[in-house]
Amino acid sequence: MFERYQGGESAILVHINFTDDSEREALDELELLADSAGVATCAVVTSSRGAPQSKFFIGSGKVEELAGLVQMHQADVVIFNHSLSPAQERNLEREVRCRVLDRTGLILDIFAQRARTHEGKLQVELAQLRHLSTRLVRGWTHLERQKGGIGLRGPGETQLETDRRLLRERIKYIQKRLEKVSRQREQGRRARLRNDVPTLSLVGYTNAGKSTLFNRLTEAGVYVADQLFATLDPTLRRIELADVGAAILADTVGFIRHLPHDLVAAFKATLQETRDADLLLHVVDCADEEMQDNVREVDAVLEQIDASQVPVLMVYNKIDKLEQAEGRIEYDDENMPRAVWLSAQSGQGVACLFEALSQRLAGALVEHRLTLPPSAAKLRSRLYAMNGIVSEAFGDAGEYVVDIRLQKADWQRLIKQEGEQLERFISD
């Protein structure tokens, strides 16, 4: 049902430099996207405009140039580095006589190639269907004919109306399936909350090195490649942090400039891991010239998915590409880690990240020395079950002197359940 690349297709890329910064895209990013989709670029057409042209998006002269290049190179597809309306796609296809794809369609195709899990495939299909629903009329007049044949003549549903109805039904079906997946994910999140296991989520611009860092921290063996959107399906792994204990690390899909709204809506269940995290690790390619712009784009997407209020630790990756850069921790005015500089590829500075994570998460820890009488053996056993006892000694009267370290939420719950007697045992 969907237009998928089979690999080896030749493409002509079209990039327009607009005077308005909000409409501007990066040409090198389009080339990376095309390469990630398995397309061979045979020519690039560039132009400068104040605003898009309503009929073709580009000027009529550029349309003629584009048609000539398509004929010369026998190109299979023309890819625009911008969002086109259905009418503009249709008009361009008539003139250049080959398929025309915009930036959103290209990103959707890459996602379709990368999806591996059942959930990922459903999410991609939902995004494709939403995108396709506006593009059913693309110059194929047979879609507008009414059904014919014996017993089907006369007033009735046109082929286009039938396709739209089937599309709506399929979208509803996929949304129901994704709601079920979302409920299952919610159960897992509630279980982690009950156990007070902190969740860390890797976020960042696509190809910033999140999966390489994820593999370095967890030895998970997640697929890594120097291409955009190498990771699509979320992966969760357990890591151990000093003074904190177990934590869950989530590797998520990378963000990109002007991320299509259909994708954001379709991947709500996946991005929920980011919104519900205790701490976001914002991975940044510090060797990228567009570093600051990429950081702003990620912040914009985080705000779009209601995750802008989650605490953030900046992780500046790929310091091995900089001259005389060293792994280090940057601290804020309250002496808490604000950023870490490292190289996930070489491992330089990774120890600094573990140290920074321990400091950030241990801030929510409570430490006390308790003197427990022999009659409080049940409470002592419970503290051991919670992995809260750091050390233990015996007093002269046979009491237990224990040093405990617990998450603040665990400690408050313990006080609520055990009552005031627990506070009487505090001897520090």
Give the topology.
Blueprint: E1 9-18, H1 27-36, E2 39-49, H2 60-73, E3 77-80, H3 86-96, E4 99-101, H4 103-114, H5 118-132, H6 159-194, E5 199-204, H7 210-218, E6 235-241, E7 245-251, H8 261-266, H9 268-275, E8 279-285, H10 291-304, E9 312-317, E10 328-331, E11 337-341, H11 350-362, E12 365-372, H12 377-385, E13 389-394, E14 400-407, H13 408-418, H14 420-424
Parallel strand pairs: 1-2, 1-3, 3-4, 5-7, 5-8, 8-9, 9-11
Antiparallel strand pairs: 6-7, 10-11, 12-14, 13-14
Helix pairs in contact: 1-4, 4-5, 5-6
Could you explain how this protein is built, in words?
It is a single chain. This protein has 428 residues and is of the alpha/beta class. It has 14 helices and 14 strands. It has a 7-stranded mixed sheet, sandwiched between helices. A 4-stranded parallel sheet has the order 2-1-3-4, sandwiched between helices. Strands 12-14-13 form a 3-stranded antiparallel sheet. It is elongated. It starts with 8 loop residues before the first strand and ends with a helix. Mean pLDDT is 79; it is low at 1-7 and 138-150.
